[in-house]
Amino acid sequence: MALPQSEASGCRSEIRESMAVRNQTTDNKQAQDANRESLEKLVERAQAAMDSDRVPEAIRLYDRVTRLRPDWSEGWWHLGTLLFDAGRFREARDAFAHFASIERKQPGPGFAMIGLSEFQLKHYVRALQALERGRKLGLGTNPDFVRSVLFHDGITNALLGKPEIALQRLTLTANQIAAAHREAPEDAVLADLKLLDAFGIAALRIPKLPSDLAALQIPVVRLAGRAQALIALQDRVAAETEFKQLLALYPSEPGVHYMYGVFLLQEHPRLAIDEFRREIEVSPSHHAARIQLALEFLRTAEYEQGLKYAREAVGLAPENFVAHIACGRLWLALGKTDRALQELRTAVKLAPGSPDVHFALSQALSEAGRNGEAARERAEFERLKALTDTAERQQVPDSPC
Amino acid sequence: MIRFLLSIALSMAAIVTLTVTIVIAAQADKSSRIRFEDVTGRSGLDFLTDSSPTPNKNQPETMISGIGLIDYDNDGYLDIFLINGAAIPSLKKESPKYYNRLFHNNHDGTFTDVTEKAGLVGDGYDMGVAIGDFDNDGWQDIYVASVTKNHLYRNNGDGTFTDVTDKAGVGTPIYKGRKMWSAAAGWLDYNNDGKLDLFVSNYCRWEVNKDPVCLSGGRLRAYCHPKFYEPLPSTLYRNNGDGTFTDVSDETGISKKLGKGMGVGFNDYDGDGFIDIFVANDNMANALFHNLKGKAFEEVAMDVGVAYSENGKAVSGMGAEFRDLNNDGLPDIWHTATELETFPLFRNRGKGIFIDVTGRSGLARPTLEMSGWSNGVADFDNDGLKDLFVARGNVLDNVAEFTNRRYAEPNSIFRNLGKMTFEDVTAQAGPDMQLAEPYRGAVIGDLFNDGHMDIVVTVLNGKARTLRNVSSNANNWVTFQLKGSKDNRMAIGAQLKVTTEDGASQYDIVSTSAGYGASRDPRPHFGLGPFKIVNQLEVRWPSGTRQVLRDLPANQVHRIAEP
Questions:
Q1: A233 shares contact with chain B (CB less than 8 Å)
Q2: What 3-state class would DSSP assign to B348?
Q3: Most buried in the list B2, B244, B269, B461, measured by CB within 10 Å?
C-alpha cells in the first residue's frame, strides 16, 4: 500500500511551488547569515540529488539541511517524502510531524502524510486521526495526492468499523477520478479495482483492508463495489443492474441485503424495508439493519414497529448513539417523553460532539416543556453544527461533479 | 392581539374547540369527495411558462413559479396574472413568448388575455408575484420578483398599470454591490401604520452561464445543488405613504440572516398583534422573523422549532403556508421540500413554540417521495377543516436518465381529517388531478365565486392549468371581503374568527402571500359544514380594532368595512 512515487512527488513539487515566494523573503532576511552561502549550496545539492532520483544522497543532504535550518518547512517536507518513498515510514512520520509543527500556511498535507506513514506502520487508529486532521485542514490541489489520502482515509474508516464515513470518503475519491476523466468517468472509476474493493468492503460492512481479503471474498466484494461506485457517480440505473446480479449470485451473503436496502431507501423505501428484514434473517445480529428500519418507520410514522427495531438495536449495540437517537425519537413520537429523554441523554453521553443528538434532545425537552434546558441543547446543536459546517467547507472541495 | 387571544383562551371556547371540530367533521357532508376538473381548454387561459432551458443548466431555468390572483378591475371576480421567464443569456423578454400575462375573468368560466393593454408584459427573467394595494386607492397593485430587475406596477383603475418601480425604489435590492435574485415577495403591514410594506425573499448569488458544472450519473450535466451558490439576505421595504419605499432591511435586522429564500408566509405566531415573517429556505435553516412591535425583527426559527426538519436537517424549503390548520387559533407552518425530505408541518403549540408533527400528521409517508414547489391551504370540501395542496415536479429535467424518478409528477391534495392529521386523497380527486407534469406554481382562490376554492397551476415549459373545484356536497361556506379605512385598504393582516352555532371556531388571516412566488385570493373563505349561519364573526383589524358581527348567512361573499 505504499504511496506511489508519482503521488508523493506530485505533492512534493506542489508544496515547493507554493512556498517559493515565501522562502525568497525568508532568504532575504537571512542575507547576513555567515553560513548562507554554504547552506544554499547544500540546498542546491539536495535538490539536485532529489531531482535526479539519487534518493539516499538526497535524504542525507536534506537531513543535514534541516539540522542546520530546523524552521525550514520545505526541507522537512522533502525529507519526509524521500523517506516515505524509501519505505522508511517511521522516520518519514517524524519528519512530517516536524513539518506540520512549523508549517503555518499549509499544514494539512503534512498531517495527511503522517497519516499515510502511520498507515504503512499499521498504526491504524493514529493513521485515521492524522488523515482526518489533514483532510479538515485542507489537502491542497494536487488531485493524485488528494485521491490517495481520501482512499486511505476511506479504507481505514472501514477497517475501524465506520463504514458510513468510509463510503463518504470513497465517494469523494470516485468523484475525483471521474473529474479527471471527463471523457469516460464511469469507465475510469470502474477500472480502479482497488477502489472497487474498498467500496465493496465498506458497503458490505466488512472490517478489513482490501489487502486482507480472502480470495474467496473478492468476487462478491468487487461486485458490491461496482454497485457502490455507480451510486457514488449517481448512476442509479446502472447500479440497479449491478445489484440484480449481486442478489442473484449472493443472496445469502451477509451485508448484501443491507446494502441493497440502503440503495432502495432513496426511491423505494417500502422495498428497502423488505431488504433490511432479509438482512436480519441472514445476519441475526445486524444492528445497522435494525437502525435503518427504526428510522424508516419513524419517518413514516409507524412508531410501534420502529420502536421494536430501535430497542433491538440498542440491545445489540448499546454503544451506538444512533440506535439511542432512533429509540428516543420513537418514544417521543409515542408520547413517552420520559423514556425519550432517557435514551437521548444516553445518546448525548455516547456522542457529545454530534449535533444530531443535541437537536433530538432539544426536541424532547421542548415537548416536555423544559424550555430552558431545550434552549441550552439548541445552542449546543447550533455550536456543533457551525463547527461541522466549517469543517466541511474546509475539507476537500465538494466537487459538484 | 394579546387580549384577542387571551379572550379565546379564557373563554373556554378553545377548550371545547377540538371536541367540536370532530363533531363538525362528523356532521359535514362527506357524500362526495374533493374533486377538481381541468377547465383550461374552454377557459381561454392560454399561457406557457418559458424558462429557456439551456445546456448550461442555469439555475433559474428550473424555478419559475409565480401566479397572482388579482381583481384588478374591481368587478368582484379574481383575474389571473402569470409570471414568465426570458431569453438566456440576455435575460430579456425578447419575444412575446416570454411575456408575463394578465387574464381577465369574464365571469362565465372564460378568461381574456389583456396583458398588452394593461402594460404588464415585463422585461426580465421573472419569478414570483405579490398582489397588494400599496397606495390604498382601492385598486390592487402588482409587484414582480425577478432574477433581473423587480417591478412594481401601479393599478391606474382603468385596466392599465404604470411601472412605478423607480419612483418607489423597490426594483433593485442590493447585496455586495449587485442586484439580488428575488424569488418571491409579499405584502404586509409590519408596523401597523395602515400602509402596506413589502418583503422580498432573495435566493442566491448567480450569474448567467456561470453555474458550476454539476454532473449526475457521472456524465450528465444537471442543475446544481443549492450548496454551490452563496446565500443572500431578504429585503424589507417600508412604505413611506407617498409612493416611495425605504429599504429598512438593515435597521430592522432582516438583513442579518442569510438564506436561500423561497416561499414567504405572514402571520402573528405569538399573538402580540404584529405580523411575523416565515421564509422557507432552500437547503438552509428556515427563517422566522419575530416582529418586535413594528420596530425591528429577531430571527427565532431555531428557538421556536421551525428551522429544521424533525431530524435536525435543513431541507429544500420551497413553498410556505402560515395559517391555522387545526382551528386552535394559533397559526401553523407547512412548507414543501424535495424528494426524501417530506414536507414539514409545524404545529404551533402556543407560548412561542412549534412542534414538528410531520410524521404524526400522516404527511411524512406520502410526501417522502414527492418534490413539492408552490403549495396552498384551503377548505376544499367546506367541511370546516383546511386541506392542503401541493404543486409537484422534480427539480432536474433529466432526472429519469440517471435515477428511477420522473421529472413530471402529479399534484397532490391532502384532506384534513381533524386533530392535525391528513390523508392523501389525490387518487379520488378526479382524472385531471392524476396528470403528471413538471409543475411549479400554484395559487388558490375562488375563481367562480361559487364558494369552492379553485387552483391555478403553472407547468415549467408547459401550459398553465385551471383546476376548478367541483366537489359537490351539501356543505355550506362563507367568504369575507374586508375593506380597511384606518388600516390598509385590503385589510391585509386582519385576523378573522368564525364561530358557528355549535360553538366551534375557525381562524384565518387576510394575506395574499402563500406558496412559492404566489399571491392568493385575499378573501378569507371558511367551510361551514352543515351550518347555514355564522353565529359570530370576530375581526381583529391590524390597528387593533375589534369588530364583531353576528348571524351572517352562509353561502355568500360578505363585504365587511372597517368600523
A1: yes
A2: strand
A3: B269
